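Field guide to reading this record: the first block holds the primary sequence, the second block holds the structure written as discrete tokens, and the final block holds curator observations. Each block starts with its own label. This record concerns ABC transporter glutamine-binding protein GlnH, catalogued under organism Gordonia insulae.

BLOCK 1 — SEQUENCE
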Amino acid sequence: MRRRSQGAGHGDGTRRVLVAIVTGLAICATATGCVRFPAPPSPPPVAFGVQPTPQGAEPDAAREPAPNSQTCDATVSLRPGPMPVPAQMPIRTTMADILGRGRLIVGLDIGSNLFSFRDPITGDIQGFDVDIARAISQAIFDDPNTIEYRVLSSAERTEALIDHSVDVVVKTMSITCDRLRDVAFSSPYYVASQRILSTRNSGIDGPAALAGKQVCAARGATSIGRIQSIAPRARMVTTTTWADCLVMMQQAQVDAVTTDDAILAGLAEQDPWMQLVGPSLGEEYYGVGIPKGQDDMVRFVNGVLQQLRVSGRWQQMYDRWLSILGPGNGPPPPVYRD
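BLOCK 2 — STRUCTURE
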């Protein structure tokens, strides 16, 4: 009994101490004379925003020679022969091999707005270059849609023709003396002028303003060597596609883009803050790239292009896709060497 009484008294005492502590804390919370111990100051939260760089972008690109640094008759091509009936190609010809395979393999890209791009609503690949490819397919198969597209970067075009992984390249490919060592070309189907794309508030109005500026171009484009010769103090940044150049300029990672006016117009159409500036820096003649040694295919494609010129179809294609560049001067006249 004594132990039980002592244990009960000890428990009551503990409860009284706890009640006193809680009561004291409550009084202190409402009194003005209590000692307070503020929490140590905490630094404000810090966030670092890092702008993503497109995959494959390379700053400080190596210097390249200006296009056509050695003079040659680059745009002179083979005269077209009689055009065969569609779906009835002459035997033992490149066109017969393509017909037998059942599809035309075309190298292009899907990031060159106006020339070759994927429609965001339908998913179809379309544009001026695509219409050229469809005309070739129509002439072989009597069907403009018998095409397998292979997406290529600018730097991959020549190699795809050398290893015959494509039948033709229709991808804003300029005819140059350097490229003619490795591949063949049709007669020109379009003439472009190299210019500069900048933002409206950049102060860049021509090549002289590019000194010390970051200038973007797709790897493998002839525009790199030309701008390096005209504005040697420009700092070149190369990317895989022209769309990557647009993204980098929107993120202020580069100051300008330079290439052919038709490609730049397609970029500017996607962003109202972009504008083409300065004079023409040189002309570029686009041709259909064809594997070297396939003279029959060169003559055949030249026949297709001639039909587009004389029928008025070329002008219809221009009006649909490239009217943003103005009325234009019509298709470039072909020059043949035989």
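BLOCK 3 — OBSERVATIONS
The mean pLDDT is 86.
The first helix runs from residue 2 to 30.
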